[in-house]
Design goal:
Number of strands: 5
Distance between the termini: 16 Å
Mean pLDDT: 83
Structural class: mainly alpha
Helix content: 55-70%
Largest sheet: 3 strands, mixed
C-alpha cells in the first residue's frame, strides 16, 4: 500500500485537476517546479504566519501601550504553546500528497452564479452593513460620507444597527445566512481563475468588487477594506505559487500593490479613528483600565510625530486582544455547549434557552475587569476556549495548522476550486488571531460549507484516482 506521505520531488506530476470529467492543466511553471522549489512553496505560508504572530506578541510586550498584565508567565507560555501547536499541525500535514478535486461544476459557471446572487443581494447586504434600507440615492450619499468622514459614518451606522437589531430576525435574514456561501466564492475563484473567465464576467466581477468596497465605506468600517487589501495579494500568489520561488523578480509589482493598499487603508483608518472620537483627535488612552500610550516610546522613534497617534491606534488594534486573553486565562472554565465561540450560533441558541449562554463566555465574564466584550478585542483564543477550554484551544490550533497545510497543498499543486474558496477564510482566521474569532464568530456558514465541499471533492477525487491506478 502506497503511503500518502511523499517526497514531492518523487511525487507523480499532478498536472491536472478534474472538473466535470475534464482536466485543467496547471501553468507550465508549476509543472517544472523542483523538489526544493516545492518545499519552499509548502513552507512559505507557515513561516509568514509564525513571523506575523510573533511580531504581534512582541508589539504587545514592547510596544507603546503599557498593558497591565498581572500573569505574564501564564500569558506568554500559552501564546508560545499556541504557536508551536499551529506549527506542529502544519508540518505534520505538509508532507501529505495533494489531492485533485472532482466536481461537475465548471469554475466560470460557479463565478457567474455567485455574481448573480451577489447582485441580487446588494440591497440586503447594504442593510446588514449599514443598518439602513437600500436606495441608490441614500447608498451613494452614504458611500461619499464614508469616504470623506468614515468615523462619523461609523457612528451613524452603529445607531442604525442598534435599532435594526431590536427587531426580530425576518425570513430574509435567515435566507441571507444560507446565501452567504454562494456569495462568497465569486471573489477567490474570480481572482485565481481569472484567465478562464469571459470578458463580461471579468467586468462584472470588477464592478461587484468596487460596489462591495463602497458598501463597506458607507458603513465606515475598516474591516471590509482591510480584507481586500490582505486577501487580494494572497490570492494573486495562489494563482501563481511559483512567484514565491523568485520574490526578487516580482518584488516591484508585489511591493507596489502592498504599499498602495496599505497606504489607502492606513489613511482610511486614521480618518476613521478621528471621526469616532468625541474630541476630534485619535485617542491614545484607555481610561477604563487606566493606561495611556507612550508617544515617545522607542518603538515609535522611526515615525514622524504627526503619524505617531495613528500608529498607536493601529498598534492597539493589533495587540489589545492579548490583554483580553490575559484576563481570560485567570477565569475558570465554563462550558458553553459549542456556541460560545460564535455570536451567530449563540444568537440562535437564545430560542432554546432561558439565560443567554453568552454570559458564560470568557469575554463576557471579564467585563467585570473593565474589558468590554463588544468594543474591545480578546484574540481568538478566549472565544474558542469558551467551548473547548484553554488546553482544548491548543489542540484547536494544532488542527487549524493541519487543515491550513492540506488546503494550501491542494491550492498550490492541484488548483482545487473548493480549496481556493476555503483558503482565504483560513487566511482571514489566521490574520485575525490577535483580534477575534473573525470567521467562525460572525458568519460561519461560508467556512463550514467550503470545508464540507472541499473535503467531499478531494475524497471523491482520491477515490477516482485510486480506481484509475488499479484499472
Amino acid at each position: 500500500m502506497q503511503s500518502e506521505d511523499m517526497d514531492f520531488g518523487r511525487a507523480p506530476n499532478r498536472r491536472a485537476a478534474t472538473h466535470g470529467g475534464g482536466e485543467q492543466r496547471l501553468p507550465m511553471e508549476q509543472q517544472r517546479i523542483t523538489a526544493e522549489g516545492r518545499r519552499r512553496i509548502c513552507l512559505y505560508p507557515i513561516v509568514f504566519f509564525q513571523v506575523y504572530l510573533a511580531a504581534s506578541v512582541l508589539a504587545f510586550a514592547f510596544g507603546p501601550w503599557p498593558w497591565p498584565v498581572s500573569n505574564p508567565v501564564q500569558l506568554y507560555s500559552f501564546l508560545i504553546l499556541a504557536q508551536v501547536a499551529l506549527l506542529a499541525g502544519y508540518l505534520l500535514a505538509i508532507g501529505k500528497q495533494p489531492r485533485p478535486a472532482s466536481t461537475k461544476l465548471r469554475v466560470p459557471f460557479m463565478v457567474t452564479v455567485s455574481l448573480v446572487v451577489n447582485y441580487l443581494w446588494i440591497g440586503e447586504t447594504y442593510q446588514m452593513r449599514t443598518g439602513e434600507a437600500f436606495s441608490l440615492g441614500s447608498a451613494s450619499a452614504a458611500a461619499i460620507a464614508g469616504i470623506t468622514n468614515p468615523g462619523l459614518q461609523y457612528v451613524t451606522k452603529q445607531a442604525a444597527q442598534q435599532l435594526l437589531s431590536a427587531q426580530p430576525t425576518t425570513l430574509m435574514g435567515y435566507a441571507n445566512f444560507l446565501a452567504f456561501p454562494v456569495m462568497w466564492i465569486a471573489f477567490p475563484l474570480g481572482v485565481v481563475f481569472w484567465k478562464q473567465l469571459s470578458v463580461s464576467v471579468r467586468v462584472a466581477l470588477v464592478v461587484f468588487i468596487v460596489l462591495d468596497l463602497l458598501s463597506w465605506a458607507a458603513s465606515g468600517m475598516n474591516k471590509g477594506i482591510a480584507d481586500y487589501v490582505i486577501l487580494l495579494p494572497c490570492l494573486l500568489v495562489a494563482r501563481r505559487p511559483a512567484i514565491l520561488l523568485n520574490l526578487k523578480r516580482h518584488a516591484v509589482r508585489i511591493g507596489l500593490i502592498a504599499i498602495l493598499g496599505a497606504t489607502a487603508l492606513f489613511a482610511f483608518f486614521s480618518v476613521g479613528m478621528v471621526g469616532r472620537s468625541s474630541t476630534a483627535t485619535i485617542s491614545v488612552a484607555m481610561p477604563r483600565i487606566g493606561i495611556q500610550a507612550d508617544l515617545d516610546s522607542p518603538a515609535l522613534s522611526v515615525f514622524p510625530p504627526d503619524l505617531r497617534a495613528p500608529v498607536v491606534a493601529l498598534a492597539s488594534y493589533l495587540t489589545q486582544g492579548y490583554y483580553g486573553l490575559s484576563l481570560s486565562l485567570k477565569e475558570p472554565f465554563v462550558f458553553c455547549y459549542g456556541v460560545g465561540n460564535s455570536f451567530f450560533l449563540e444568537g440562535l441558541s437564545r430560542h432554546l434557552v432561558d439565560k443567554p449562554l453568552y454570559d458564560s463566555t470568557y469575554p463576557a465574564r471579564i467585563e467585570a475587569s473593565g474589558w468590554d466584550s463588544h468594543s474591545q478585542w480578546h484574540s481568538i483564543y478566549p472565544w474558542i476556549a469558551s467551548d473547548l477550554s484553554f488546553p482544548g484551544t491548543i489542540l484547536f490550533m494544532f488542527l487549524l495548522g493541519w487543515l491550513f497545510a492540506l488546503v494550501w497543498l491542494d491550492v498550490a499543486f492541484c488548483r482545487n476550486p473548493w480549496a481556493v474558496c476555503l483558503l482565504p477564510l483560513l487566511l482571514t482566521m489566521l490574520i485575525y488571531i490577535p483580534a477575534n474569532n473573525q470567521v467562525l464568530g460572525f458568519s460561519p456558514m461560508p467556512f463550514w460549507a467550503m470545508l464540507f465541499l472541499w473535503s467531499f471533492s478531494r475524497a471523491r477525487g482520491s477515490t477516482k484516482q485510486r480506481a484509475t491506478q488499479t484499472s
